[in-house]
Amino acid sequence: MRSFSNPILLKMNEAINWEDEVQGVIADISNCVSQITLSERLNTVTGVSQSIYLNLETFESEKFTVKLSSAGYSIVGTAFNDNTLEDNSTSSSSYETVYALLQSVSPLYVSTFAEKLSSKLEGIATAIGVNEQDGD
Asked: For the domain that residue 24 is a member of, what is the CATH number?
C-alpha cells in the first residue's frame, strides 16, 4: 500500500496539493472499485482549493461523489458529479482514509482487497521459497 500524508495532521499553513494526494488514492484502489475518477464538473475552481471531488463506482454498481478535504473523506452525493449531500451534515460521515469509507459502503471492496492481498502474499512467499510445510 502507498502511504499518504494525512491531511488532518498537516499544519494549518501548509498548502495541500489535493490533485497529487488524490492521484495516489486513484492508483491505489482502482483495481478494487469499478470506476474512480476526478469529478470534472465539481473540480473546476482555479487557485488554492480546500478540497477535491472524486466520482466513485463500487463493484455493487453504487455511484458516489466523494469529497476529500482536511476533514477526511466524505460522501457528498449518490451519483457522479453530485454534491447535494454536502451541506447536510447529518447524512455525511467523515472517514480518515478512503479504505474506511469503502469498507462502510462496499462489501465487495473488502473481499476484493483481501483476495488481492492474499495473492500478493502468496507471490512473495513463493518468491522467497516459503511453502506450507516450512511452517511446521
From this structure: 3.30.2280.10
Q: How confident is the model at residue 4 (pLDDT cuts 50, 70, 90)?
A: very low
Domain of residue 54 covers 7-135
Q: Which amino acid is at 135?
A: G
Strand order across the 94-95 sheet: 35-38, 51-57, 63-69, 72-77, 94-95
- Backbone angles phi and psi of 72, in degrees to 5: 115, -155
Q: 3-state SS of the chain: helix, strand, coil percent to 5?
A: 40, 20, 45
Hunting for cell 499518504 — which residue is that?
4
pTM of the model: 0.75
2 within some domain: no
Name, in order, each residue with C-beta under 8 angstroms of 115's C-beta and a sequence gap of 6 or more. Answer: none
pLDDT at 111 over 50: yes
pLDDT of residue 1: 39
Q: How many domains does the chain have?
A: 1
Angle at 42 (CA atoms; ends 38, 44), nearest 5 degrees:
90
